[in-house]
Write a structure and sequence with these properties.
Elements lengths: L2 H15 L3 E6 L2 E6 L10 E5 L6
Antiparallel strand pairs: 1-2, 1-3
Length: 55
């Protein structure tokens, strides 16, 4: 998944599910997933999307 697509997907998931979503870099591109489900290397995390954070 491209970075732009992954960013939009991550924000949409965060707002819809009302959970923190992280954007990670993989060998195949980027991916988004709930932060509670990620148990990999923290260096692969590009950004987190918190729906409760005031922007």
């Amino acid at each position: 998944m491209s970075l732009e697509t992954a960013q939009r997907y991550a924000w949409n998931l965060a707002c819809t599910l009302k959970v923190i979503i992280i954007l990670i870099e993989t060998d195949d591109g980027y991916n988004a997933m709930p932060s509670d489900d990620y148990d990999g290397d923290a260096d692969h995390v590009v950004r987190d999307y918190d729906p409760w954070e005031i922007m």
